[in-house]
């Protein structure tokens, strides 16, 4: 049997803008997805017959990327993430599946994390009508704090480049690690799930539609880019007060882009009194918000009182691994 774990992610700055080549800053969270696979006499996934249309990421990884023609597999998936909630559950699934499959097929070969991140990105794009940045998959694969951008940003360490032909043209990104202070003080991420799904493909398509109907809205992308740079600079020196302020500003820009929702706004507002900053995270339209706080229990309570489901993560977690 081959087993792997890949973490989910939380975007601190730059969601949606990153699809257009602007920078995004994402953090791997503690919670993620476990995948175990073993050879079996039939194709089975989570105890049921494997329906490829229900698992496009897994199907793409198996057949298009690994060109797997071996014996049928029994696949077990155990997710600690809210699904379709902006926490990168599909990227974590792709990475954990890719890692486990790699171990099953090439048990002697070292896991190539960068190759895995690229495989995951291709699977995400295939499942999202050809529009996906490498943010989710790279963060889940590499762990830590990842900066994905059309151009390399100063104060980051370059890891690899990614490109994709999208319906709006060819896009390329530089995937870098943010250099964070060695000692991170006692701050936490508190994720709050609205209970409503956030369909990434649809939200990304809505933004593409909005920008083509109203080109003036492109200025929102530039605003998000500036906020992201400011947030990243503050993060690199451990100035979490400024990080929080940038998160609040980023949320307002995402609202103008039409990707927030009443329930996201409610959880963000409820968290603010006990947080350094709070915003929606990921594609929006539902899904999750994230708060940065020194008082995670208090923020969790606020999220629960306001109808959300809270989850606490430390600020920096490791990437995909075989278990
Ligand atoms: C989804 O987690 C983040 C988006 O920016 C889409 C992407 O980067 O592919 C909305």
Write a brief structural summary:
This protein has 323 residues and is an alpha+beta fold. It has helices spanning 56-65, 89-105, 113-127, 135-142, 200-213, 218-236, 240-256, 262-271, 296-305, and strands at residues 2-13, 24-39, 44-45, 48-49, 73-79, 145-149, 156-166, 169-178, 188-193, 277-281, 288-293, 309-314, 321-322.
How would you sum up this structure, described in words?
The chain is 37% helix and 28% strand. Helix 6 packs antiparallel against helix 7 and helix 8 packs antiparallel against helix 9. It has helices spanning 56-65, 89-105, 113-127, 135-142, 200-213, 218-236, 240-256, 262-271, 296-305, and strands spanning 2-13, 24-39, 44-45, 48-49, 73-79, 145-149, 156-166, 169-178, 188-193, 277-281, 288-293, 309-314, 321-322. It has nine helices and 13 strands. The strands form two sheets. Strands 1, 2, 3, 4, 5, 6, 7, 8 and 13 form a nine-stranded mixed β-sheet that branches. A four-stranded antiparallel β-sheet has the order 10-11-9-12. It has 323 residues and is α+β, with helices and mostly antiparallel strands. (R)-mevalonate binds at residues 11, 15-16, 18-19, 86, 132-133, 135-136, 200, 204, 282-283.
Task: Provide the helix percentage.
Answer: 25-40%
Approximately what portion of the residues adopt beta-strand conformation? Answer: 25-35%
Q: Sum up the overall morphology in one term.
A: globular
Q: How many helical elements? A: 9
Low-confidence stretches are none
Please give the number of β-strands.
Answer: 13
How far from one another are the termini? 10 Å
Q: Give the radius of gyration.
A: 19 Å
Largest sheet: 9 strands, mixed
What is the H/E order? EEEEHEHHHEEEEHHHHEEHEE
Structural class: alpha+beta
Report the average pLDDT across residues: 93
């Amino acid at each position: 049997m081959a087993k792997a774990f890949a973490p989910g992610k939380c975007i601190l700055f730059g969601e949606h803008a990153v699809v257009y080549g602007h920078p995004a800053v994402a953090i791997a969270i503690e919670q993620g997805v476990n995948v175990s696979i073993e050879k079996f006499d039939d194709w089975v996934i989570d105890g049921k017959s494997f329906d490829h249309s229900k698992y496009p990421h897994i199907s793409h990884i198996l057949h298009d990327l690994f060109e797997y023609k071996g014996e049928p597999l029994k696949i077990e998936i155990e997710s600690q993430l809210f699904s379709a909630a902006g926490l990168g559950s599909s990227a974590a699934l792709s990475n954990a599946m890719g890692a486990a499959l790699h171990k099953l097929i090439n048990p002697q070969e070292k896991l190539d994390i960068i190759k895995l991140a690229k495989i995951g990105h291709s699977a995400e794009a295939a499942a999202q009508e050809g529009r996906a940045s490498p943010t989710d998959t790279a963060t889940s694969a590499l762990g830590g704090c990842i900066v994905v951008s059309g151009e390399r940003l100063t104060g980051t360490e370059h890891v690899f480049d990614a490109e994709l032909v999208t319906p709006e043209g060819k896009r390329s990104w530089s995937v870098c690690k943010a250099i964070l202070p060695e000692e991170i003080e006692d701050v936490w991420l508190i994720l709050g799930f609205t209970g409503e799904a956030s369909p990434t493909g649809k939200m990304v398509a809505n933004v593409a539609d909005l920008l083509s109907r109203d080109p003036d809205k492109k200025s929102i992308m530039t605003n998000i880019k500036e906020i992201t740079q400011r947030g990243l600079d503050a993060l690199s020196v451990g100035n979490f007060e400024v990080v929080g302020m940038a998160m609040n500003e980023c949320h307002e820009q995402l609202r103008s882009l039409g990707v927030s929702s009443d329930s996201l706004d409610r959880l963000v507002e409820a968290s603010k009194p006990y947080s350094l900053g709070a915003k929606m995270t990921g594609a929006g339209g539902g899904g999750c918000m994230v708060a940065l706080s020194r008082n995670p229990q208090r923020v969790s309570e606020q999220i629960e009182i306001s109808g959300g489901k809270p989850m606490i993560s430390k600020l920096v977690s490791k990437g995909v691994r075989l278990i």
